[in-house]
Amino acid sequence: MIIRNTLITVVFGLLIWLLIENTFQLDITSTKNNVLVQSEKIKVDNFQNIDSVKVYAKLKLDIIRQNSKKNSEIATHRIWIIIGIIVLQIIVLIISKHLKKEKFLKPFS
Question: Is 17 helix (H, G, I), strand (E, B) or coil?
Fold first, then answer.
C-alpha cells in the first residue's frame, strides 16, 4: 500500500511538472512577438546591399536551427517522462490487482 501511494504521488508530481513545463511554452503575449517581427522587418528594409542581408539571414537561420534543436531536446525529455508515467501506472495497476486478489482469496483460506 505504501508503494502504491508513493507511485501515485510520483505520477501526479510528474503530471504537474509536465503541466507547468508546457505552460511556459504557450505564447500568451503574442503582441510581443508581433512587435519583434515588425522591428526585424524594419532592419531588413534598412539594409543597403545584398551581402549584409545574406549575413543577417544566415544568422537568423542559425538561431532557428538552435531553437529547433532545443525544442527537440525538450520534446525528448517529455516523451521519456510520459513513458515513465505509463510504466508507473502499469506498476500501480498490477500492484492493485494483486492486492485485490489477495484480499479476495484470504477469507477462503
Answer: helix
Cell numbers describing residue 94: 498490477
How does DSSP assign 30-57, residue by residue? HHHHHHHHHHHHHHHHH--SHHHHHHHH
* Cα 84 from Cα 8, distance rounded (Å): 12
- Tens-place pLDDT, residues 89-108: 888 888 888 877 777 666 55
Q: Which of 37, 14, 1 is nearest to 88 (CA)?
A: 14
Give which of 102, 36, 92, 84 is closest to 63, Cα–Cα: 36
